[in-house]
Amino acid sequence: MFRVTIILILLSVYTEQASGGSIFLYNQVRHGILMKVHCKSKDNDMGWHVRKYGGNYGFDFKDHILDKTLYWCNVWSGPTFSRNASFVAYEGKQYKNRSNWIRWSIRGDGIYESIDGATPWKFKYHWFGTPL
């Protein structure tokens, strides 16, 4: 019985301290160009989404208390989705604040990151595939 009590206490502490975060991807490639997105973690597949220029895709998540949360995204753009990139969209141990709002700007020259909307856009990833 004592072990069960300890497990329940630890479980309640874990769930109480699990903070949430958000990831948003903005299609800023070029007018008329679609963006296809597929994001996932070890436990969650967020599905496939297509957004037109100016559109965005976002989702919320709970951050693991031991900084084990990892989401990666694959994006495609271009008339035939010939440009692509795969990148780490969120890794818990990289960010000090557990309730981060991570924004990704998908542009013609690459992928940019801004944290909580307070930091300026920073170039992070190049495209693979053929140019637009």
From TrEMBL:
The keyword Secreted applies. The keyword Signal applies. InterPro entries: Self-incomp_S1. It is found in: Secreted. Its main location: secreted. Keywords: Secreted, Self-incompatibility, Signal. Residues 1-20 form the signal peptide. Pfam families: Self-incomp_S1 (PF05938). Belongs to the plant self-incompatibility (S1) protein family. This is S-protein homolog. It comes from Brassica cretica (Mustard).
